[in-house]
Amino acid sequence: MGKILEQILSRLDSMDEKIGSVKSDVSTLKSDVSTLKSDVSTLKSDVSTLKSDVSTLKSDVSTLKSDVSTLKSDISRIDRKLDAVFEQTAILLEFKTDATQKLDKIIEDNRSFYEVIGEHEVSIRSMRRILTTT
What we know:
It is a single chain. The N and C termini lie far apart (190 Å). The model has no long low-confidence stretch (mean pLDDT 92). This protein has one helix at residues 2-133. By secondary structure, the chain is an all-alpha fold.
């Protein structure tokens, strides 16, 4: 019976060692689970922050789309005005060219008038001299 008791005690000691090892493993697992819970909590917070950021980005993109649409409309209006300015510039250039040609003709005609008037003046003075000497 002493031998059986020794075997039972030996087995109990072995079981105590194994239970201690299991307790240590369970403690490590509890620590790991606690770390995982903390990590999951952090991930949930990060996901929430990301959702908020994505919502803000969507709002910003919507605002940008609206702004781009407004800019396209403004550019289209500016293009139409620019086309009108080009047309008016062409008309004014043509008018300037015509006016310059007419002014050049008037200047040339005026020179001719002065030449004719000058010749007549000479003729008139010559006739006066003839008339006054006679």
